[in-house]
């Protein structure tokens, strides 16, 4: 019988150390399990499993007994199938149907009616409104607020929610409706910069771009031109001023998309920042804050230090 390789023995010894309930014998080349250690470990394992099961059951009971919203994803066809074997209390026929009617974002109005009696038995929305008080028809639905806030919490927005609902065979208009219903304006931090078609200060065309700091998505852009294509008349003003005008237009229409650009991260040039605050885009009460780019700060600091060394 060939001699066993040392690597095989080492691996078996490591296994013995890991499990601690098995003992290896070099002479007989077999494993002997310690029955007492296994039996003593079983009660502890069973106790952990029981604790986990009790915790899950308590969570389920809390969800069932609590008045807080508890949502599930359900296929509408299965919901309709639940009524196939239910009798109408008036005509005693199996003619109850579900009508998926008005939709407000992610909330839909469901009505149960009898096709024989032509009577609506019950109707309600699939989500409660934020306020349960009287006259709350203008209040947003809880599901709409939760969906929008959940996607914003991990840096996603309209496009991510649209892809999510497409995978559930939903439609794009439902996502747009949810954002329109919950039309609260969100303050976000952005970076802005402008560029020109040609280098120098005599370029006729420039573009300004706003990018969200959290997601890196392009929020909006604006193209500026000093020359009119139709009349070939050159507008007055410098090429540098195009960047400020582009920023002003982008900030003015930001609220139409549900955002306010309240914090601006830019390079060392503060002309655009000062220009926006002078115009008071969001009114006198809301001031735009400025954050310095660390790359530009380090660049200016390095230039100043090298200049000081030479002097």
Provide an overview of this structure:
This is Mutator-like transposase domain-containing protein. Residues 73-180, 183-308 form the Mutator-like transposase domain. Pfam families: Mutator. With 311 residues, the protein is of the alpha+beta class. It has helices at residues 6-19, 35-65, 76-81, 142-153, 158-167, 172-181, 240-252, 271-279, 294-310, and strands at residues 22-25, 30-33, 96-104, 107-114, 119-125, 186-196, 205-212, 218-225, 259-266, 289-292. β4 and β5 (119-125) form a beta hairpin. α7 (240-252) crosses α8 (271-279). The radius of gyration is 33 Å and the shape is flat. The N and C termini lie far apart (85 Å). Mean pLDDT is 72; it is low at 21-42.
Instruction: Decide which structural class fits the backbone.
Output: alpha+beta
- Strand line-up across the major sheet: 8-7-6-9-10
Q: Compute the average pLDDT.
A: 72
Overall spatial form: flat
Cα Rg = 33 Å
Quaternary structure annotation: single chain
Secondary structure tally, helices? 9
In the predicted model, the low-confidence regions spanning at least 5 consecutive residues are 21-42
**What percentage of residues falls in helices of 4 or more residues?**
25-40%
Helix/strand order:
HEEHHEEEHHHEEEHEHEH
Largest sheet: 5 strands, mixed
Distance between the termini: 85 Å
Number of strands: 10
